[in-house]
Amino acid sequence: MSNNTRTALREFGTKIGLPQIDFNDDNFCTLAFDDIIVNLELVGEGEYLAFYLWIAAVEAEQRAEVAQAAADANYLFSGTHGATLGMSRSTGDLVLAAQIADATLTLARLEQTLENLVNLAQSWRTRLTEGTLTDTASNSSPLSFGADFGLRV
Fold this sequence. Notes:
Helix content is 32%, strand content 24%. The chain has three helices and five strands.
């Protein structure tokens, strides 16, 4: 499995001038876009590609407010491009995660997903820094992270 994912990642690497990009022996690959780190993982037997982005370590006194804002964004994926925001209760680490089936992954979908997730992570960092967590105008996501929905037959 994971043929589409490996092909898309190889094509992406070639396109950006880094043809050596690949998954390590543990099925992980890390990409950096400015100060945003995107961890990729082949899940299971490569049936899915998971994306993990660390956004920030939230201070204890902010965690309740950030948890509520993340829950609002996760509700019907209205503020997450179809991804999920989560926060560790013990560390306050706020992360963004998404998963795409290998069977549906293409270079275009990988690029769009990476762009949307990186932009969303940067937006959350800005909101945390500026204290604009309840700003509903910046909480809407007109773009999905590329999910194709269809009927199973």
